[in-house]
Design brief:
The chain contains 10 helices and 55 strands. The strands form 14 sheets. Strands 3-9-8-5-6 form a 5-stranded mixed sheet, covered by helices on one side. Strands 32-55-54-35-52 form a 5-stranded mixed sheet, with no helix packed on it. The protein has a domain of 82 residues: Immunoglobulins (Immunoglobulin-like, Sandwich). It starts with 8 loop residues before the first strand and ends with a strand. It is mainly beta and 897 residues long. It holds the Pfam family Plug.
Amino acid sequence: MKRKLLILSIALLSVFSFSAFITDDDPFTELLKKLEEFAKKYPQEKVYLHLDKPYYAVGDNIWFKAYVVDSRTSEPSTLSKILYVELINEKDSIKRQIKLPMQSGITWGDFKLTDSLNEGNYRIRAYTQWMRNAGPEFFFDKTIKIGNSWANKVFTKTNNQYSTENNAEKVNSTIQFSDKNGKPYANNLVNYEVQLNSRNITRGKATTNENGEINVAILNTQPNVYKSGKITATITMADKQTVVKVIPVKTTSAEVDVQFFPEGGNLVEGLPSKVAIKAINANGLGENVSGRVLDNEGSEILKFETAYLGMGSFILNPLPGKTYTAKVKLTNGSEKTIALPKPQASGYVLSVNNTDSAKMNIKVILTTDVMNKGELKLVAQHNGNVYFVTKLSSEKQLISVSAPKSEFPSGIVQLTLFSADNLPVAERLAFVNNSNDKIALNVQNLKSDYDKRGNVDLIFTATSNAKPIEGSFSVAITNTAAVAPDLENESNILTSLLLTSDLKGYVEKPNHYFLNNDLKTRTQLDNLLLTQGWRRINWNNIINNQFSAIAYQAEKSLKISGTLTKGGKPVVKGKVVLFSNSNGFFVVDTLSDANGRFNFDKIDFTENIKFVVQARTDKNNKNIQIDLDVVPGQVVTVNKNTGDVEVNVNETLMPYLAQSDKYFDEQTKRGLLDRTITLKTVNIVEKKNPAPNSSNLNGAGRADFVVTAKDLETAFSLSMYLQGRVAGIMIRDGKAYSTRANGGAMSIVLDGMNMGSDFQLDDIIVQDIESVEVLKSIGNTAIYGSGGASGVIVITTKRGAGTESNYARYAPGIVTYAPKGYYQVRQFYSPKYDATPDPKPDLRSTVYWNPHVVSDATGKANLNYYNTDQTGTYRIVIEGIDVDGNLARKVITYQVN
């Protein structure tokens, strides 16, 4: 929804509109223009993923719908057309990355959780290339628990005891090993290793007691350096098989960090100010505390107590010449002393009362020495859009402003007070939850209860401001008896796009602030924002023109591009050919421009496709260097959501794992789910493969004749080496011919790419070759079909085995390239029992998933699906967006008997 600039009513002052006081030569006008230019030049994108469940088990599928919006307009983004989604394990290693095409900021995909994965705290991260310019703080990055029972023999449960010893932090970890039924593994050998911040701290071995337990003592002598880590425990089973378990060490400390945040930024002598408190324990979670504020003479000024997740606030009026400390009492009974920020002798206090559901009441208070020093300016902006700006006279010490929330978009509003010199002197974040930019969903035809396998046929109507809207919605339906909802921490479109995507730090239980809109919840949300010292727009950077360089362009389509050079100079009008024989033959060509640049744009391809780029000058000279444009991958940062990390994942998810095991076992019986077969350790003396990285379709090394890199060490060229060495092969004009075939030239396969029979053997530098396999006999060539009729030569290069840039360069004028293509999205299976009855039990944990339900011009959309064989309370979660960026979320339940 587009809104015009708000004109504020100011108590005891005249009313100024934006245009009323700003002239073309006003320096503050220039500052606001800089903000506008910044917002246009550096538009920000936000990503949210709607997940079908709050947690998973190995064997499950993660189904998700992605919503990408332009933060300035809140509308679905048209800037980027490609989204990256990653599954990251506890080692901060990417286990799977998929690349998805987007249309109007919408796409969807899935991850299959194979039994090669271990249980643990995984992350789902999503971003566009354009978002990388702003940094990973803006990415969607959610921690999810993945349990493992179906493909797991050993379960662990860890209990930690914390203490201090000679300024070192000590952790005594008791680890219990048991099977899925809780029976302990007694008298088993366990080897363990402890790492903190990737550095080995200690290692040892122990034997489990009758309860299946061992004790691991961790001594952290450098607590300022090492904060967290892991225990890698290897247990030896009765059959001598070993099982490795990785146990997180979230912290080595029981310390609680307490911070104080003056509203607006500073305490100022003689001016009453709200001070927010934030207490976080070493596990990253809020911990409620109480305490007293004392002045420098030891007099008690006030008492305080946090109200929710270690956050709260109090009012302090610092007296001139006084300093203040807080005596904080922790839950364990201990007390710590913390100095409050030192009050400034002169300055401003910006105070906002945001607990009223209809308006924000804003007060600006000045010390007497800054009064009558020119006009102040108060600006409220949301993601670069200014929603009000007004001048404030400095003739009075107290100025009051009232702003109706209905004129603001939902989300975080940044209020900044500027001095007469146009410098930011106080700042405050406030949250607005406006019903005008929400989509109302009304569900029809839904009964209160259904039978097992009953057909659910419902309609929902989407409206915005009482008018029907066309929108894209995602629907996830689960049985709460199998999947207990995580109400305060599950994936939520409102929480993500309106709150956490604009905050850098970890937010504990973010959904809590959206479950109710009462005074208590609004106060708790206001305390949260008072403790956030970071925001998207930094005014000092705007003032000083300190803008980040654009390192990553917004991706509109898949492309393969690069530069041609010869002798260090660009090749103009060079002919470039791109071809591939993966999934059918593909070929296209183009010419390089005046800078030697070439570009194959808008070429859609899927994963695991290999291309060959071949170039020649306009005079058919092949001695050209091809440099492809390869964007480096995004590094994996340390998980910021430390509070969401669970030490005992399997223990926490045990009810869900017991339920999912039944489903997986049934799927396995029906041949719909494969389990990896783990063999006992067998010592085998392996015969070395002469062509280990070969793409030979018969299998690496299975050929009539094999040449290795060692064989070619003294060779001048490949054609000269092969001449006379291989029976039935003759070399003519740089090509190989089989005397036993039909007289045609042999096909060349280079690093898995079929180059055809016109390829010259000496187009490859012989020193770059790792192996050459000659296929002559019908037994080896038959697998290549008609392409192998004259024989095949499989060439594997040293660099072709895999490089960081994912492409291998050959001299002259040839490059093979395997770029990341689009993921082929799978479809969620939803049975139709009226058409295809099935007597086998239906134990699905996700009852229904549809990532793209579209409402029509009347705002209506239809859902039709069948319940499972499990009774319980079924939960429907509908989320979505319309073209104007209005958001929807609705949760409905019904019973299955």
